[in-house]
Design goal:
This protein is mainly alpha-helical. The protein has 35 helices and six strands. The strands form three sheets. The protein has a two-stranded antiparallel sheet with strand order 1-2. It has a two-stranded antiparallel sheet with strand order 3-4. β3 and β4 form a beta hairpin.
Length: 751
């Protein structure tokens, strides 16, 4: 008789709470104790603990919804924007100075708005197949534009009217037991979320969809609805948190929810969820929220110090507080996000803690979880259909079949529109080249981003890298008194360092590019503010300012005077940055289109697995592409400082949105495998002309900047949808084929 033995891989991991949560609790206690040692005035009081729990409540509620999204292997970058928008909408509905509606009506309308926003995200991502980071990033920026537009940059308060509605506004206040009512509400939401995710069919479907969506479909799970449902839950959690904030503050400011998406995502990942999907617990996410909020408070509160002030020859000690410079907290939160995402694959999946504990007890180590992505991955090559159509076409059809033809046509149409609306402004040569100056910065960024997108990655940090490079150059010029050459070199070095980190984290540590560059977005933006202490710097040597001047100004600086004529007229309006951009674009375009390196970039983005089988070093292609994007953004930042003769920490804001839209409008595929520098330049021209037209004063009206950003966000979504459904899926061609078949069938029947 043969005995059959089986080897157990151990018990299934608990779904409600486990060892990771116990570790988080211990770390929280140690961190709080450390905060009490550093700043006993604040952290040594019960009020500090109460404030920590109160502020964690709102972040924790949003983290509950985010857990469902991340376990689904999705991402929601819009939660901070939704939080701010709901709070602003409630203020506009309820405040006596605006619509002056009742509290019940205002709350119901806010909940309906939250449902609509969640549905928009879910439908864009599941049905219309827009990548989650693009859809929710655009929702974030559009929502932020609405917040600024609806508040006009001012706070809205309604404390007097709130006094007449104690039932609702008491939710944000301290009760008779001595703690804020938001705390038990958050506990109830956490308990419901934890039970649903761990013990119900909804949770089973969520884990199955995130672990292996293809297998879940084969098992009969409606994965599209599961993913839409997660975005609904996420949006409603953000809505609830916003209403609680409205009840607490009895007002709203334009800064509500800024960077909250970063805080919430970091909370969920620190809580044990996997960015690859299929893993996560609500309790861990809420403990992660408490940890992130506590770290934020420790950094923002600073620690007490004693300064010695000399008055009339006497040393007088004065109690003071040391706080971190402007931007330091943002840098730390960006680092926290990247580190948190690295924890899961390198610590949790390898069960480092459990293996160490087993080794200490001289027991066999537990098995490591499978490291990698989904089990079933379909090979796909992007852009092949449109490329084949372009090769088979002739004459004008050959041009129209190109993916970048639309951008060229749109550029011409938008230019003619401006000429019709304001011929007095549009036909003026100096005004024309003023528009060209705005175009140059965006075009330079777009050139580098074309390589990244063609290689199948994304870079959300290009606008922040622009600010970082400009900040470094400004710091060396103004604070250290460096010469222009040194300032340029240091600016390039700072920007390239950011690109190097992006490339190492993305390629070396195999993190998704959107997560790595999202972390760098906050790190670089924080460092840019840190270098200049959050202030605007001005006043550089004229030798540096020449980088942003007209060609004729440079010639005169070196004692060269052109004779009157066409050449001088052009030199007086064309800037050196435009000439430099065209040179960079020419080199980059030739390399991408006509060299083996460019073809390897396309192959990597089109099908990375097939490219690797063909012997292409795909990691090198992606690495170099990310470095090139940082280089182009750094050059744009250095020129920005020279052109404006000053540096503002908000430089490059929304440029990542403009640049991505430019590449996609110019024929690039958001999925990789295609893109041309000519098309990207045309796409940048489209975005620049749209902004110029919207800002154009026509009969006394021009659109405010906040609404322009909303409009650009809509353009990005439309561009991505065109890429997915018109270029990739060839929906019009399929519809034409179906109609042709239907007509032939009808003729056969009647014949």
């Amino acid at each position: 008789m043969t005995l059959i033995t089986t080897t157990s891989l151990g018990r299934a991991p608990p779904q409600l709470v486990g060892g990771w949560e116990i570790g988080l609790l211990i770390f929280l206690a140690l961190l709080y104790f450390g905060g009490a040692l550093v700043n006993p005035t604040f952290f040594g009081s019960t009020e500090a603990l109460h404030a920590l729990l109160r502020d964690t409540s709102r972040v924790g509620i949003i983290a509950v919804g985010m857990t469902f999204v991340i376990v689904n292997r999705d991402l929601d970058l819009s939660v901070g924007s939704i939080y701010g928008l709901i709070a602003v909408v409630f203020a506009r509905l309820f405040a006596p100075s605006f619509l002056d509606l009742g509290v019940t009506t205002s709350v119901v309308l806010c909940i309906l708005l939250g449902v609509v926003l969640g549905l928009i995200n879910g439908v864009l991502i599941t049905i219309l197949r827009v990548p989650a980071f693009i859809a929710t990033l655009t929702t974030l920026l559009i929502g932020r534009g609405f917040v600024l537009a609806l508040t006009h940059g001012q706070a809205i308060y309604y404390s007097d009217k709130a006094a007449g509605h104690p039932l609702f506004f008491h939710l944000g206040e301290t009760n008779v037991l001595g703690f804020n009512n938001q705390i038990p509400i958050a506990i109830v939401v956490m308990a419901i979320g934890a039970y649903v995710l761990a013990k119900t069919r909804w949770g089973y479907e969520t884990f199955a969809t995130g672990g292996n969506e293809q297998a879940a479909i084969y098992a009969g799970i409606a994965t599209s609805w599961v993913r839409i449902r997660a975005y609904l839950i996420s949006s409603l959690c953000a809505t609830l948190a916003a209403l609680l904030s409205a009840a607490q503050d009895k007002g709203v400011t334009p800064l509500y929810g800024v960077t909250w998406e970063l805080t919430v995502i970091a909370s969920v990942i620190i809580g044990g969820a996997s960015i690859l999907g299929g893993r996560g617990r609500v309790v861990g996410s809420c403990l992660g929220a408490a940890l992130v909020v506590l770290i934020d408070k420790v950094l923002r509160e600073g620690w007490p110090i004693t300064r010695i002030i000399v008055i009339d020859g006497q040393n007088i000690p004065v109690n003071a507080k040391y706080t971190l410079p402007a931007g330091a907290v943002l840098v730390f939160l960006g680092l926290l996000l990247v580190v948190a995402v690295l924890i899961e694959p390198y610590l949790m999946r390898r069960q480092v803690a459990a293996r160490l504990w087993a080794w200490l007890r001289s027991r066999p180590p537990p098995p490591a979880y499978e490291i990698g992505g989904i089990a079933v991955e379909g090979a796909q090559t992007k852009g092949a259909m449109v490329t084949d159509m372009a090769l088979s076409a002739t004459g004008l059809g050959k041009f129209l079949a190109r993916r970048d033809a639309l951008a060229v046509i749109l550029t011409a149409l938008l230019w003619l529109t401006g000429l019709v609306l304001r011929p007095d402004y549009w036909w003026n040569l100096s005004n024309t080249f003023a528009i060209l100056l705005n175009y140059t910065e965006l075009a330079l960024i777009t050139v580098g981003l074309t390589y990244v997108i063609a290689a199948g990655d994304i870079d959300l940090s290009v606008g922040a890298v622009l600010a970082l490079a400009g900040s470094a150059a400004a710091y060396f010029l103004k604070v250290l008194g460096a010469d222009p050459f040194t300032a340029v070199a240091m600016g390039l070095l700072a920007g390239m360092a950011a690109g190097l980190v992006n490339a190492i984290v993305t390629v070396g540590f195999k993190l998704p590019a959107f997560i790595a560059t999202l972390g760098m977005f906050y790190i670089a933006r924080g460092l840019a503010a840190w270098f200049v202490a959050g202030q605007q710097l001005t006043g550089w040597p004229e030798g540096y300012n020449l980088l942003g001047r007209k060609v004729n100004d440079i010639l005169l600086h070196f004692g060269i005077s052109l004779a009157d004529g066409v050449l001088r007229s052009v030199a007086e309006v064309v800037s050196v940055q435009t000439v430099w951009m065209l040179l960079v674009a020419l080199i980059a375009g030739v390399v991408l289109a006509y060299t083996p390196f460019g073809q390897k970039v396309y192959a990597t983005g089109g099908n990375v697995r097939a490219a690797a089988y063909a012997g292409i070093n795909t990691n090198r292609m992606r690495f170099v592409s990310l470095l090139l994007a940082a280089l182009c953004a750094s050059m744009a930042g250095i020129i920005n400082v020279a052109y404006f003769r000053s540096f503002n920490p908000v430089a490059g804001q929304f440029r990542e949105l403009d640049a991505i839209a430019s590449v996609i409008i110019g024929g690039g595929s958001i999925f990789g495998g295609y893109g041309t520098v000519i098309g990207a330049l045309a796409g940048a021209a489209v975005i620049t002309l749209v902004r110029a037209l919207l800002q154009l004063n026509v009969q006394g009206f021009s659109m405010p900047q906040h609404w322009i950003n909303v409009f650009i966000g809509v353009i990005l979504i439309v561009a991505v949808l065109v890429d997915i459904w018109v270029r990739q899926a060839n929906i019009f061609g399929r519809l034409r084929t179906r109609l042709t078949k239907g007509a032939r069938t009808s003729e056969t029947v009647h014949g």
